[in-house]
Amino acid sequence: MLKIDVHTHILPRDIPNWKGKFGYGGFIELEHNGPGCALMKKDDGRSFRQIEDNCWDAEKRIEEMDDVGVNVQVLSTVPVMFSYWTKPADGAEVAEFLNDQIADIVSEFPLRFAGLGTVPLQQTDIAIKELERCKQIGLLGVEIGTNVNQTNLDEPRFFDFFAACEQLDMAIFVHPWDMMGQDDMQKYWLPWLVGMPAEVSRAICSLIFSGVLERLPRLRICFAHGGGAFPATLGRIDHGFSVRPDLCAVDNPHSPRKYLSRLYFDSLVHEAAKLDYLVKLVGADQIMLGSDYPFPLGEHHPGHLIDSMPYEDEIKSMLFHGAALNWLAMESGSFT
Known about the structure:
With 336 residues, this protein is α/β, with parallel strands linked by helices. It is 40% helix and 17% strand.
């Protein structure tokens, strides 16, 4: 059965010295510190993450995909590379560099990879320009963060970007990053365990309550990590909308539940009961295999959770590739 993993991250093997070029710091560097490994670090010397060559080597990825039965990966950058905090023109240059690398890999291995770009959302017009270029170089959509410098996605200045995604028929993958409150919970890896699920719910609620999804009915948007905290807290969110419309319904009069049929999610939920809940909540046609390859919080054997479920082949087929093809607006024979 065709398996498309929609949630995988990739980096270039070598990253330019952006600090030297732009004249200020905060950028990620790669320090190759051994055979097949490298240290991601900030240009002030702080370590961020140790990675291996499967984070940049397409052929190594294909070997590992074959080992676990994944046919296709949808590539997107590591969220720390979004660079929303930079000057817009500099962020655009970073995005262009990252997007070209992904496009090159897709071009070289079109049956094994599809690509999502990144855009400098700190300035909407420049983001739209890079979005248009992403489509021109063969990328199928974009990955964006759950916030832009702690500004929520309902901010009116972002609407034109979402409208452009709809007009250009580009898919959107929303990934948590720059987690709210992370400075207050550094211990126990809590930004990743607590902050990330909250970030995804933050993004979904912002797009629903603001009316973005109401105004853009053809927008194809997927949320990482099974929608984070949103599915599990939908009852509270919907109840709050009902009892305090003066606070929640100020920009959109419709219940959050109206939009369940519009939301895609990846399958990265780590337990069978949560996946089954999600399937029952929105349907298998809106849930896609996603592993967060190649990072530790991901599913180390992509698709194992789906395989373990007592679902009929028709449902598993949708989870493994059907929903992904719909989200990416691709034909069923695109990878054969």
